[in-house]
Amino acid sequence: MAIESEIKFTVTDRTVFDRIAALDEIASWRTLDQGIIRHTDTYFDTVDYRMCREKIVFRLRTTGHGSVLALKAEAPSGEGFFRRIEVEAETMATAEDIVHGHLPDLPPVSALFDRIGIVNLFRSLESVNNRRVILLARGGEKADYELVLDDVTFCGAKGKAAVLELEVESLAGAENGLNRIGQWLNERFDLKEAGPSKYILGMELVGGMY
After folding, report:
1. What is the DSSP letter of 64?
2. Whether the predicted model's global pTM rises above the 0.85 cut
3. How far is residue 58's CA from residue 69's CA, in Å, rounded to a whole number?
4. What is the spatial distance between Cα 36 and Cα 129, in angstroms, rounded to a whole number?
5. How far apart are CA 7 and CA 170, in angstroms?
6. Half-sphere CA count of 76, side-chain side, radius 13 A
7. From first to last of its 210 residues, what are the pLDDT tens digits of the chain?
8. What contacts 4, CB < 8 A, 6 or more positions away?
9. Which residues contact 76 (CB under 8 A, 6 or more apart)?
10. Number of C-alpha atoms within 13 angstroms, CB side, residue 50?
11. Distance of alpha carbon 102 from its chain centroid, rounded?
């Protein structure tokens, strides 16, 4: 189990992504552009949307390299940034396996059952994300932070919705610069603070519980 520490913003102007991607430096950290990675996320919930109400995320992420199952839940937040418990594992399971109750014996599943018991799940939301990844480093090549520019389309019971988000996540426990990076970005770009979870946002926009 890991603790994920991050700041998140909503971006209202698509050209901001291009301007940030062109930067050589952000708040004194060098930028290392890793390019764009496309992934599809399938989110699951109980029939009474307990996980959405309790801000628990259970997600299957699929890329061209395979699939990762993840559970995320709130942890005590830092000043100005979010912390979440994160449990991940690579898996061969599909979304159909999960909704039919054939869940793999993996840490994210155990963590889910520990929190809400053994329950039936359904596909509550899907999203497609074209994610640009930019590492932020000082000195050597080891990165302290990961900045991502997310171009997300949610698909749910109420249709589709497109959202642009920017996230900065600490790597190897480097939390002390998160607020500095966030302030630096806020001073230069049109950003709005976002909530801790894309799942909650997607459900608010197109999910079936509202």
Report:
1. T
2. yes
3. 8
4. 10
5. 9
6. 0
7. 788 889 999 999 999 999 999 999 999 999 999 999 999 999 999 999 999 999 999 999 999 889 999 999 988 766 667 788 999 999 999 999 999 999 999 999 999 999 999 999 999 999 999 999 999 998 777 899 999 999 999 999 999 999 999 999 999 767 788 999 999 999 999 899 898 899 999 999 999 754
8. 72, 82, 83, 84, 85, 86, 169
9. 83
10. 12
11. 25
Q: How many residues does the chain have?
A: 210
Integer Cα distance of 54 and 26 in angstroms: 35
Instruction: Indicate the Cα dihedral angle 66, 159, 153, 145, nearest 10°.
Output: -90
Q: Looking at this protein, which amino acid is placed at residue 35?
A: G
Question: For residue 108, what are its two tokens?
Answer: 């994210």
- Number of continuous H segments (helices) and E segments (strands) in the chain: 6, 10
